[in-house]
Design a protein that fits this description.
Helix content is 69%, strand content 0%. The N terminus is likely disordered. Helix 3 crosses helix 5. The protein contains five helices and no strands.
């Protein structure tokens, strides 16, 4: 079984600690797949929307599409849910 934080078990020197938390270059970040970008954007939209619902009782997605029962709102909610499942499956795959 792979450890969740592979560098945690090797904390021998400062170099190893910094290697665990190294900053990725712009090129490495841009190599992310298209699906990962879509998932990331949907999760950000969902998180911001839920934050606004919790803080201000304002559902921006529902406001844009004409209510929570509108087809557009339901599509966005389902896509955000699927994005969350996609990320969860990838996270579980990393932890194996």
């Amino acid at each position: 079984m792979r450890p969740l934080y592979p560098c945690y078990n090797n904390l021998i020197s400062t170099k190893v600690v910094f290697r665990c938390f190294e900053v990725h270059t712009y090129f490495e970040i841009m190599q992310k797949g298209a699906m990962d970008w879509v998932v990331s954007i949907l999760l950000i939209v969902g998180a911001l929307n839920w934050g606004l619902v919790g803080l201000l009782n304002l559902d921006v997605v529902a406001s844009i599409f004409g209510g929570t029962a509108a087809l557009g709102s339901k599509v966005v909610y389902v896509l955000v849910g699927l994005a969350g499942l996609w990320k969860l499956v990838k996270l579980v795959g990393v932890m194996k």
